[in-house]
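Ticket 4471: requesting a sanity check on a complex prediction with zinc ion. Repro inputs:
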Amino acid sequence: MKLIMLGPPGAGKGTQAEFLSEKYGIPQISTGAIIRSVIASGSEFGKKLKDLIDNGNLISDEDVLKLVKERIEEPDCANGYIFDGFPRTIAQAEALIKMDIVIDKVLSIELSDEEILKRLSGRRECASCRATYHIEDKPSKVEGKCDRCGGELICREDDKPETIKHRLAVYYESTAPLKAFYKEKGLLVTAHGQKLLEDTKREVLKALGELK
Ligand SMILES: [Zn+2]
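Returned structure tokens:
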């Protein structure tokens, strides 16, 4: 099974990718993780990538594809893999085809903007011990205080409504064309994110044809 996962921030794409990775016994491949490991290796290429990132530059499609190609040639990818956060652009998706990488399905996890806002903007983190809470789904016993250490609970910059709206806008701009691209190729399936994790898993399995 060679799968691509799409989905807006906050839809639980990473969690579902993890679940499917276990279910099918195939690795979950995120370009972010590959890049971090290449940088950690200290190789020449790793140094080049680190310089690019430190200077606030994007890594070129060419370099990303080179990294992905090397990764999927590793033995644990023999039975397939799940791309999480890749491809990000039509150019990358087209390059996959040119490299004769055949994808079986593209799974998009959908969630409305209101649900995403509610989910992400309700998240809180302890400023001292980093324990996580959610004002509705997992509230602390005392409002604004960490159950574990009594530290102050804060809303991360990433989870502030304005930042979320910006992240969503970026997502729609880059991903809407990808969805159309794969839909046209007959590869796109969609699952709606649910309030409960188990329910989302069921929707995902239905979308993949594993459940009726
Ligand atoms: Zn704490």
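Notes from triage: The two ends are 19 Å apart (CA to CA). Leaving this open until the requester confirms.
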